[in-house]
From TrEMBL:
SUPFAM superfamilies: OMPA-like (SSF56925). GO terms for cellular component: cell outer membrane; host outer membrane. It is found in: Cell outer membrane. GO terms for biological process: transmembrane transport. This is Outer membrane beta-barrel protein. InterPro entries: Enterovir_OMP, OMP/PagP_B-barrel, OMPW. It comes from Massilia eburnea.
Length: 200
């Protein structure tokens, strides 16, 4: 009798575990980067906002882990992205940046077909392949800043979903020419994303 009861209990636990959702969610998004293009006067004189960075649409992959049905963390990844830099509307070169972002999220209605969420986190952006002013100019190597997020998952079935997402990311950098700082630029982009998700 004890063995039979134990078997029933273990079987019930196994079925319950199978019914629960996996804590892992992976999404693939297409994301449009729209920079704020704010900058200090070049050389400390003249008008502000003369330096700008090109907009771009990029691929993105993010991995989420759910600690509870409502609370998760999301790591956003992509590969180094190339952007053009402009001074007074004229191209002065290019650079690449890699901007991994980690956010903590709250999902308001995780069991519903439409599940909105908000997120708060940090962004780390590293700049590379600076080719500004024929190599005499560059951007500061690293930028750390806040990231704000809002979005929603539209569930198609138990595993698949459509995702829409918007982020505001703080990315700042010194603009260097021959090793001297000549301006500070606030890229601070808004990122509009749409993609698909899979819950394992």
């Amino acid at each position: 009798m004890k063995k039979a009861i134990l078997a029933v209990v273990l079987g019930g636990l196994a079925l319950n575990a199978m019914a629960e959702e996996s804590p892992w969610l992976v999404r693939a998004r297409a994301v449009h980067i729209n920079p704020a293009d704010k900058s200090d006067p070049v050389g400390g004189v003249g008008a502000s906002d003369r330096i700008s960075v090109s907009s771009k649409t990029i691929p993105e992959v993010d991995i989420s882990y759910f600690f509870t049905p409502n609370i998760s963390t999301e790591l956003v990844l992509t590969y180094p992205q190339k952007h053009d830099v402009y001074l007074d509307g004229q191209s002065i070169g290019t650079f690449k940046h890699l901007p991994p972002t980690l956010t903590a999220q709250y999902h308001f209605t995780p069991s519903s077909q439409i599940s909105p969420y908000v997120g708060l986190g940090v962004n780390w952006t590293t700049f590379s392949n600076n080719k500004i002013l024929n190599g005499t100019g560059s951007l500061e190597h690293d930028s750390f800043g806040l990231a704000l997020q809002a979005g929603a998952d539209f569930k198609l079935d138990k595993n698949w979903s459509i995702n829409v997402d918007i982020k505001k990311v703080q990315i700042r950098s010194d603009v260097m020419i021959s090793g001297a700082t000549v301006s500070k630029v606030k890229v601070d982009p808004v990122l509009f994303g749409v993609g698909v998700g899979y819950r394992f």
